Amino acid sequence: MKQTVEYLVKALVDSPDEVQVDEIPGEEATTYEVRVAADDLGKVIGKQGRIANALRTIVKAVAMKDKRKVYVEIVA
Predict the structure, then answer these.
(1) Predicted confidence band at 36 (pLDDT cuts at 50, 70, 90)?
(2) Pairing relation of β-strands 20-25 and 30-35?
(3) Which helix (H) or strand (E) holds 70?
(4) Which of 65, 68, 61 is nearest to 31 (CA)?
(5) Computed from CA positions of residues 66, 36, 48, 33, in that sequence, does the dihedral angle turn out positive or negative?
(6) pTM value surpassing 0.90
(7) Deepest in the core among 20, 23, 52, 53, taking most CB within 10 A?
């Protein structure tokens, strides 16, 4: 799952080598914290958060196969 998030985010940004995805396991859900370069933050969030919401939707759909609960947070 971490590789999926990383792949999608790297495809969106201009500096893919600065993308960092941290997996934080929890009791009920797993959280993925995405860090990107300051210049790429707007590209990952998108207008009115549309790209961020689409990213979350894709990751949740993939997680549903394994009956897991995941969250994606974009950290500045």
Answers:
(1) very high
(2) antiparallel
(3) strand 70-75
(4) 68
(5) positive
(6) no
(7) 52
